[in-house]
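Hi R.,

Here's the input for the NAP complex you asked about:
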Amino acid sequence: MASNLDEKYMRMCFALAKKGRGKVSPNPMVGCIVLDKSGNVVSKGYHKKYGENHAERDALLKLQNNEAEGGTLYVNLEPCSHYGKTPPCVDLIIERKLARIVIGMKDVNPKVCGIQKLEALGIKVDYALEPESRFLNRVFIKNMTFKMPYVVLKTASTMDGKIATSTGSSKWITSSESRAEVYRMRKEFDCIMTSSNTVIADNPTMEHRFKCILDKDLRTDKYSKIYSQGEIYVASSKNTPLKDGRLDIETVLKELYSRGIYTVFVECGGTLAGSMLKDGLIDEVYHFMAPKLLNDNTGLSCFNGARVENISGASGLEIYEVKRIGSDLLIKSLVRNQRNSLG
Ligand SMILES: NC(=O)c1ccc[n+]([C@@H]2O[C@H](COP(=O)([O-])OP(=O)(O)OC[C@H]3O[C@@H](n4cnc5c(N)ncnc54)[C@H](OP(=O)(O)O)[C@@H]3O)[C@@H](O)[C@H]2O)c1
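And here is the predicted structure with NAP in place:
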């Protein structure tokens, strides 16, 4: 059972782990706290960069003597037990004679069986803040379990859920502050994904180092602004199988993963958003909502998937952040689907 103290130290691990955000991918973000046998914090560490020491090794190697003997080690992910870019962390934990380990979550990497090894030697293993640990490393969990990128869909609408009028007029629904926030957000992802329709309707640049355009029949003009910079992967019927007459986006996502794309930011209209939502391909939605009501049902909707008869057929979201940006609201939600079950 996790005590309040265990939770306090696990939260400290999360804070340390987050220092590695953006630098450790495709590895997880991990932080570690070491207490001596009297309960004093004697060391801290975190995974700083892909290929560098894991959090436990970073913390334990800072100790000169045997300060950790009989103590407790907190780490938000099960310690590794295999040789990767660094030696197994469990071996160092055993060597330093820790008496108890508190972990946030089991590693989803099947090569890791650190808990088993520790317990076999009589080292006590407890858990603390498991759901929060899984939330912190949700990208890693999705990547490792499904060999697919983590997908966030951004949409910007009026308060009645419209992204454009029936004539396609959409500039601008949200405030300049929200649009600046989108420019900033894009940098957090490995790839931006968009559609032929959005490129044709808006001619956006979507500045980014890697962009994926879904364009089954190669309808987009190669002189459109989107082609003016960055590496571009065009998914078309020439390189992607079709599903129900449309590009099979799951195959596209797996192809992107094989090219080292671990996170995808989707910017599109209601057709693609609706189809991806229906197929369980969206892990999160970032919804910018402007204080406007279009008051016209012929306007385009953010999500335009299949006809749903019963309200129980609505997709469930779990809001985890709400922020005011300029005059708008930004609502960040998790989409619960079979590919990102967060436990
Ligand atoms: N407010 C916002 O956040 C926002 C963001 C972007 C765009 N928009 C607006 O959205 C409007 C365009 O919306 P839209 O609904 O016409 O287009 P969309 O949702 O952006 O794209 C739909 C197109 O995506 C392609 N696609 C490829 N695979 C697909 C699949 N499996 N399922 C569904 N579509 C697939 C298809 O074109 P192919 O057959 O050519 O492959 C399809 O016609 C524009 O007016 C634009 O201004 C708004």
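One thing worth noting: The pocket of NAP is lined by residues 155-156, 163-164, 168, 170, 173, 195-198, 201-202, 214-217, 219, 246-247, 249, 267-273, 275, 300 (CB under 6 Å).

Cheers,
M.
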